[in-house]
Amino acid sequence: MKPTTLHPAAYVSVLAGAIVLALLGLGAVLADDTPIGSKWWPSEWGADDQRGAANRLTPDKVLEARDLIQQGRIYQLGRIYEHGMPLPGKRHFSLTIPGLPTGAPTGANQIVSNDELFSGEIGQVGTQFDGLGHVGAHVDGEDIFYNGFKLGEFGDPYGLQKLGVENVGVFFTRGILIDLVEFKGVDRLPAGYAIPASELRETLDAQSLEIRPGDIVLIRTGHGQLWMRDNEAYGAGEPGLGMESAKFLTDHKVALIGADTWAIEAVPHEDPDQAFPVHQWNITRNGVHHLENLDLEELAADKVYEFAFVFSPLRLKGATGSPGNPIAVR
Amino acid sequence: MKPTTLHPAAYVSVLAGAIVLALLGLGAVLADDTPIGSKWWPSEWGADDQRGAANRLTPDKVLEARDLIQQGRIYQLGRIYEHGMPLPGKRHFSLTIPGLPTGAPTGANQIVSNDELFSGEIGQVGTQFDGLGHVGAHVDGEDIFYNGFKLGEFGDPYGLQKLGVENVGVFFTRGILIDLVEFKGVDRLPAGYAIPASELRETLDAQSLEIRPGDIVLIRTGHGQLWMRDNEAYGAGEPGLGMESAKFLTDHKVALIGADTWAIEAVPHEDPDQAFPVHQWNITRNGVHHLENLDLEELAADKVYEFAFVFSPLRLKGATGSPGNPIAVR
Amino acid sequence: MKPTTLHPAAYVSVLAGAIVLALLGLGAVLADDTPIGSKWWPSEWGADDQRGAANRLTPDKVLEARDLIQQGRIYQLGRIYEHGMPLPGKRHFSLTIPGLPTGAPTGANQIVSNDELFSGEIGQVGTQFDGLGHVGAHVDGEDIFYNGFKLGEFGDPYGLQKLGVENVGVFFTRGILIDLVEFKGVDRLPAGYAIPASELRETLDAQSLEIRPGDIVLIRTGHGQLWMRDNEAYGAGEPGLGMESAKFLTDHKVALIGADTWAIEAVPHEDPDQAFPVHQWNITRNGVHHLENLDLEELAADKVYEFAFVFSPLRLKGATGSPGNPIAVR
Amino acid sequence: MKPTTLHPAAYVSVLAGAIVLALLGLGAVLADDTPIGSKWWPSEWGADDQRGAANRLTPDKVLEARDLIQQGRIYQLGRIYEHGMPLPGKRHFSLTIPGLPTGAPTGANQIVSNDELFSGEIGQVGTQFDGLGHVGAHVDGEDIFYNGFKLGEFGDPYGLQKLGVENVGVFFTRGILIDLVEFKGVDRLPAGYAIPASELRETLDAQSLEIRPGDIVLIRTGHGQLWMRDNEAYGAGEPGLGMESAKFLTDHKVALIGADTWAIEAVPHEDPDQAFPVHQWNITRNGVHHLENLDLEELAADKVYEFAFVFSPLRLKGATGSPGNPIAVR
User: Which of A255, A278, C16, C91 has the lowest tally of Cβ within 10 angstroms?
Assistant: First the structure.
């Protein structure tokens, strides 16, 4: 996600709040009661850490995930990257095949070959993994990210010199699907709906599941059904985490949070003066990565609520995120 | 790979052969004794199949792989994508961060965000998975690919309409490393060395392993040690499969072949008139995918020869390949 | 332009016609009465020519243009290239600034610098010059372009080996504006309106002007007023040349035709079975280049109908077109 | 240009100087005796001006240029943009043709079409025009550009909000070629040679020419002969303006300075602690644009020292520069 992904209407509202605050002189310094709170570093994994909650991914979690594989059935959670998919703001997606074929017939065996050329915000279009270099907070004139790293120091036009996605490693761990659509008996939650922590808890109970440290948690809101069906509605807002439910998950020491939405969190946010505060809470303060624009329909249809989850981000040096096709296996 | 990745010297030699054949009038039609042979379709998985040997990936193979996970240790086999990595021909790699930050401070919480912009032949630079739309053969005036699909019919400038990488699915199966460097007691095999089938067999024996249908096989030649150390030598040629050893692997009904080289096969080829014939044999005729530019050093150092292998290609609609960070788990 | 720039509705209609013809077995061979006609090569400038009607640009035309410069007033005819401008089909436009600044403070003088990164179909977005490699005709299984050059021979995935825009040279010649909006006393001509030759003639008479060999002619339809005001209407169709008026201009041996539309010609075409036949007539058969998406409003407001015209295409090797900011000077 | 275009060796030297200064605490604030000097705004064209010395382009200058056109002969000064041309740092150039053809046969007339896809730092590769948003100075924690505009205020990841190249307008004015190669009787000046003002003066005298306000001045050093012949030497350094000769030209109130080099100025600079100070002097302080990587050979061969000069930058919104094919006409 990024701020410009807000629907124009929502954006104006956020901006209006920001202007009011700016007039009150509160814009520059984040107060203790802001979502991200006061100084959030050094991280619990040390002052040099660049992996955040991915540090919770241990061999034991791999083995725990392994034991959930009983049928050998794989669910692909990544959406297809294609022309016409929802794209926020000025981001673009271009895939072309030079030449058809790109490589003309060569050799006695007359081999021909094709390449594809891609242009776009690769870690921030379609199914996407938000790395720790994706969002931060502007505090006292500086852009500060996870573990207190300052963009002024690690920013580089050709790739971040810290917090790049190549540092994260691989997610092979226990995964949990919290299916709010099923639990609430609706088609999909409405845009702007901030899921209360109690609903996460009750759904988990109904699914007879608990969250354990190092798990990844996927939230199904039903919003994903709009993907490629009503892209405008898909991008105009979304249901998702509020501050309370975000804290519920970080309190449970998850390693990653995913959803069938483009920002994981309610848009517009509960507090219209805040822009994507759950991003800051999860990523910047707690080092918990996001996986956005997932397809959770098949998993839900089969009522697969606990599974081995595997996602291996591209090792794009200095990138803020990664595309991918995460899988659930049971 | 593609033909233009040949070293100039090798290329001239291939070309010279091609010209001779053309003069003899043999260029246009592939004879039965060419690597790819005569009519290679319909595929054993039906006339409509677009997945090739990925059809060998079954739930049973997932369970077989699961049982190899005993320690929960993950090996990342994907290389880092970065400026300065080896790039053949006119391919390019560009990664930039617009703005730093891309999204200016917004909201009372003053969130900032970064994106990355990527431009390049995404499925054909760095660690890469060759899909079935990547190589074919020019026969009687037509470019024919896996399962007899004609590029003139499924080619599309904005993404192939058949054989796109989004059709492949996920590789979660038993993996085998054949470490020729260890077996032969050398640092690395020389460029142009065509590994005989006997050496594959003997190395497997020495490693007390057998290949089973649906496995993926990784070949370590040591050539990968040149990556980012001597890019010119890395790209000028490579050791790898010859026709005999390629057939040995396809006879064993593997699902995918990977290596620490950029083309899996010996370059220049045993027969200098042939350009990348193993590509045609594996991909075009047998539907066996390639994984190129892997980093197999850590796996080899730990003598991990049998493992769970997981690779989930990006679902890039109509793409000829995919980048990735495949993993071995034991 | 390209065929996919057609409005969906128009496109279906063209396609329907094409299908009917295909069923009748007429699709593959172009009959004498098709817009492009029978064999159109060698060109009047020789069998090797790659410049087409740009050969009419002589030192004498430069001097003729010079004499039209009396006030030293320059009119910029190029539109601004920007996010949100009309883009047909799957073309894209992306301009970003890596880093801000791209180059960090360096030296005792602490210099900083910015670059811009561009991605897009550079010669076919916004104000654009159609080179001779842009359109051709599929005849008897081959794609044939200006002067009979076959795409199968000069096509190259990394830039055309013939007819590239670097061959064209510079347009410094007499320019004529035919202002149909003024002449007809309307705001703008309706989409699909095929300007008859008689109207070109009458407007020229009203403007007391004649067309001379080597001139460039700009047609003002008023359609350009929709640019960035109603992009959907702008792209859905347009008024412009029909076959008769196109022939009127090529009979007058013009060097280039421009307009305040995206295709110069009426869309949909007079004959709904034809797709962009004026493109074929002008470019493929007669070697007359196009300049599309011009801003002719200021020129018209000042009633500047005769002027020195200067346009110097980018020398992009092997490109099909060029962006630009052509000027009229009087 | 940008700092990273320095040859590694030169770069280290600049850096070493910078480090020394930084240790002395002199890095952050620019002293009066630095090339760019103290406060350089508001500009002589007002505090809001975004065009700089392009304001010297008047109708009178157009008429003055017109009178220099006596033969109608056009010289193209822009180089061909192509794969393999010199590219500094991490910039790239990619041009591909999707599909060949991009648009498949359509309509009864079976039209086919090609597009080209471009990716690269469009205003900063090959023949390039440096706009006023290209370079500035880091002073007291802020990046300050022409007319005192602060990057922190006008920077935008999707295009500069001030000083974008779309503001510049068109150069149609008197042009002067100062041919130092001819004057000094050498093949080319050596890299690092800082042309003294006296040599500019003497060459002008020898050519019987004077510089007038609003002229553009092109400097021929002979370095351009290395283009595509020895790209490494071309980029490793270059002869060009020193501070004295730069001041000579700005004192003469030129509108633009061009050269057959990639940075106009001597690299390494006379004072090895300075990085591209002439850029700052000309562009940032004086608003005088640069044209780099010109081909001046043909002009020199014909001894054309005075001519009409025409260059119309692309109106790329918010871009730092523009590609182009400037022309000299006599």
Answer: C16
Say which DSSP state C190 is in: P
Q: Is the peptide bond before A8 cis (omega within 30 degrees of 0)?
A: no
Tokens 């669910």 found at? A75
- Series of mean pLDDT values for 10-residue runs along chain B (330 residues): 39 36 38 70 98 98 98 98 96 97 96 97 96 97 97 97 98 98 97 98 98 98 98 98 97 98 97 96 98 98 98 98 98
Question: Which residue type is seen at A248?
Answer: F
Residue in C95, C113, C143 closest to D318 by CB: C95
> Is B117 in a helix, a strand, or coil?
strand
Q: How far out from the chain centre does Cα D151 lie?
A: 20
Given an 8 Å threshold on Cβ–Cβ distance, is B3 in contact with A113? yes
Torsion of CA B14, B20, B24, B27, to 10 degrees: 20
Chain B residue numbers touching C158 (CB-CB < 8 A): 90
**What per-residue confidence (pLDDT) applies to D2?**
39
HEC sequence for chain A: CCHHHCCHHHHHHHHHHHHHHHHCCCCCCCCCCCCCCCCCCCECCECCCCCHHHHHCCHHHHHHHHCCCCCCCEEECCCCECCCCCCCCCCCEEEECECCCCEEEECCCCEEECCCEEEECHHHCCCEEECCCCEEEEECCEEECHHHCEHHHHCCCCCCCCCCHHHCCCEEEEEEEEEHHHHHCCCCCCCCCEECHHHHHHHHHHCCCCCCCCCEEEEECCHHHHCCCCHHHHHHCECEECHHHHHHHHHCCCCEEEECCCCCECECCCCCCCCCHHHHHHHHHCCCEEEECCCCHHHHHCCCCEEEEEECCCCECCCCEEECCCEEEC
**Count of A-C CB contacts under 8 Å:** 33
Calpha distance B109→A29 (Å, rounded): 9
Angle at D276 between CA D272 and CA D277, to 5 degrees: 90
Residues of B in Cβ contact (< 8 Å) with C90: 158
Which pTM value belongs to this model? Answer: 0.91
Q: Which helix (H) or strand (E) holds B240?
A: strand B240-241
Cα–Cα distance, B77 to A35 (Å, whole number): 38
pLDDT score, position A102: 97
Please give the average per-residue pLDDT across C153-181, as a whole number. Answer: 98
Please provide the size of chain A in residues: 330
Q: What distance in Å separates the CA atoms of residue A88 and residue A6, rounded to the nearest whole number?
A: 8
- Nearest Cβ partner for D157 among B94, B98, B119: B98
C306 vs C68: CA distance, rounded Å = 7
User: B90–D94: do the CB atoms touch at under 8 Å?
Assistant: yes
CB contact at 8 A, B137 and B319: no
Beta-bridge partners for C137: C144, D111
| Residue of chain A whose alpha carbon sits nearest to that of B280 | A111
- Candidates C216, C281, C272, C291; CA nearest to C245 is C281
Q: How far apart are CA B165 and CA B315, in angstroms?
A: 6
Q: Which residues in chain A touch residue B151, judged by CB atoms under 8 angstroms apart?
A: 100-101, 112, 114
Q: Which residues contact B79 (CB under 8 A, 6 or more apart)?
A: A315, B85, B126, B127, B227, B293, B294, B295
In tens, the pLDDT along B159-195 reads 999 999 999 999 999 999 999 999 999 999 999 999 9
The CA angle A27-B105-A271, to the nearest 5 degrees, is 65
Q: Across the strands, what pairs with B178?
A: B219
Among candidate residues B186, B246, B177, B240, the one with its CA nearest the CA of residue B206? B177
Q: What pLDDT is stored for residue B169 in this prediction?
A: 98
- How far is D110 from chain B, CA to nearest CA, in Å? 16
> What ipTM was estimated for this complex?
0.91
Distance (Å) from the alpha carbon of D25 to chain A's nearest alpha carbon: 19
- Give A-chain residues touching C94 at CB under 8 angstroms: 90, 92, 94, 119-120
